[in-house]
Amino acid sequence: MAGAAGRQHRTTQEQKDHLVKLEYFQSATGRFEDIEVGTTLYFTKTVSETDVYLFSGITGDFSPNHVDEEYMKEGRYGERLAHGALLVGFISAASSRMRVGRTVSLGYDRVRFTGPVRFGDTITTKYEITELDHQKKRIFNQCTCTNQRGEVVGSAIHLRAFVD
């Protein structure tokens, strides 16, 4: 597949790296009252070059940090990096697998990209219910993204509202 500036990109290893580990949590009752603080699940995905290019196409973010190999060779990291916002997508994927009842996302607080995500990195997103607001029926979730070396590369708090 030809990419930016007509350069060829790997496909064989990308296809192998395009694996996603799926995990689901299904509440037995779907009632807010039965949601428990500490409920946790994990979403794991290996980031491929294809993922980054598709994300660039969807968002329109073709920053050279993500798509220009020559440009990034000269910089601090020496190679292209995945978009930080891709980690928010992984958090969203984890959220969709935390089936505690009918909820909607109210947004993300304290989003931080604390380390680089390189092509080929395997990112595990830990998604944990840390607080419940019983009056407003809101769920606070701590989200932490780590790479295969155990380094934290991103984090956020995800706020969800329970809707009956």
From TrEMBL:
Pfam families the record matches: MaoC_dehydratas (PF01575)
The record places domain MaoC-like at 39-138
| Top-rank taxon, per record | Bacteria
Entries under SUPFAM superfamilies matching the protein: Thioesterase/thiol ester dehydrase-isomerase (SSF54637)
**PANTHER family found in the cross-reference section:** BETA-METHYLMALYL-COA DEHYDRATASE (PTHR43664:SF1), MONOAMINE OXIDASE-RELATED (PTHR43664)
What name does the UniProt record give this protein?
A: Dehydratase
The organism encoding this protein is Variovorax paradoxus
